[in-house]
Amino acid sequence: MGSSLLRYKEQIVLVLKDDATGKILKRLEIGPNIVTNSGDKYYAQRGAAETPTRMYSAGMMVIAKSFKRAATKVATFGDFVGLTTTYTGRQLFDAGYPKTNDSDTDNTGRTVDAVTYKRTYTTAQANYTIKAVGISQLNATTAAAAGTRELASYKTLSSAQQVVKTSSQTLTAYINHTFNGV
Questions:
Q1: What span, in angstroms and rounded, lies between the C-alpha atoms of 40 and 21?
Q2: Domain for residue 171, yes or no?
Q3: Which regions of the chain are under pLDDT 70?
Q4: How many domains does the chain have?
Q5: Which residue segment(s) compose the domain that 88 sits in?
Q6: Nearest Cα to 74, choosing from 35, 107, 116, 23?
Q7: Which of 2, 30, 134, 151 is buried deepest, with most CB atoms within 10 A?
Q8: Which of these, 67, 58, 84, 70, lies nearest to 141 by C-alpha position?
Q9: CA-to-CA distance for 171 and 126, rounded, in angstroms?
């Protein structure tokens, strides 16, 4: 397979910065992440101008310190474990996100035909080793009720991809979903 055929349709970019200096300490480009069955349905309904069953554009970014199982098409919020009842890793997207054709130069996975979800975690948020990343619905929970636990995308990180965030650092997480034909 030629290198021109190698590409990610979904990519996560994690940018860890020193809060005092703004210096980038680590940038990871991780792909692919899995768009779940619920995420597939969301994009199909949006493309057909239908009202989505689940509204991920008003959802939340999730970075978790643990996970129950590796990435799968049927992953749910309950597959993130180690989250406290306050869900410190589950946060609203940054203002203006999600959006297409992201202009943020820290997002090395941006393209004109990608939907980018972004969240900047402050020094007070998510201070742990990050082992999984995803997009949930607004205020997702581990409850058994359908709709409160579904995810649009889910990625478990290998040990080489994991990021250790401390209270002297900020973390910006980007999830890019690119819509390219073959």
A1: 40
A2: yes
A3: 1-9, 82-88, 143-147, 181-182
A4: 1
A5: 9-178
A6: 35
A7: 134
A8: 84
A9: 9
